[in-house]
What we know:
20 helices; elongated; Tetratricopeptide repeat protein
Amino acid sequence: MSNRGTSVDLTVAQVMAHCGGNPAAAADHLARAIAAAPEDPEPYALLAELRSELVDVVRGGGSLPAVLAQSYVNFLDGDMDAAVLAIGSVTGARPDIAWAGAPWFGDERFLGAVSPDALAEAATRTLYHDPDLDSDSMRERFQPWFHAIEVVTARRPVPAALARMAILLRASGLTDESFALCDKADAVERIMLTEVVRAGTWRKLGDPEQTAAAFERAVALEPTSWSLHLDLADLRAEQGDFAGAVAHVDRGLRHEPAEPTLRVAAAAYRTRLTCSAADLVELIELAPLLPDDPYRSTLIDYACANPDLPADLVAKARRL
């Protein structure tokens, strides 16, 4: 049963669609009604009734109300992959609302037809703005996602999709469940991505050695992946093992000698390890190849922490 505010929104939506000639406003009021109670079937029933009036909004709109409408219309049309991708985008924009509490999201027609790849992509979209999901209230809001993951992965366990879904479980604080999904993926086929996800989960749990072991297994599966070597180098640097960091970044450079991120990291870690002014000069020359972001700043901080470096070069590096 809709509350009074929701009923007002539904009435206004109907007027805007039928008589007001403003389908965008109608979609806005429908979205407000759904946001107030995502589990209430009444707004969806009205959306189904008004779909012909809202066709232009649904087809071409990129606003949250338009994409929300797209999700349900796609469900009605039997396009479950498009439906889940749309609701994933809406959830990513406003993770504080339990959009997946919609009746259709738990419908057997949806859970029986949506593909693992689409569900994995939708789960990824929920994390676009790096929300903090590790709380009881957020886990409650995301419970329909967890149920969908359980049902769909039991029906069709695709390793890469399972690994991506495990990231959402990890972000929600469900680390045991995330590991279990990775194990399920391994039972089908061992792939690099699964080990990378495991590494991230071990990192979240504060276990650097298990993190490194997972990255090493990932490297064994894809030895030419320079980014994995960089991950290991960065992990060793976090532990203060700059000899290990240099060794790992050098392994990456053997595969991608021109990769700017590797070159900058190599100069930074060598500077910290050897206290070489020449390496610091190289870092100063190479650092502008990377975006001015926290990772670049971290590399510069590592290098400049060596107290025996020339003060003028350290000052120049810190001004970058």
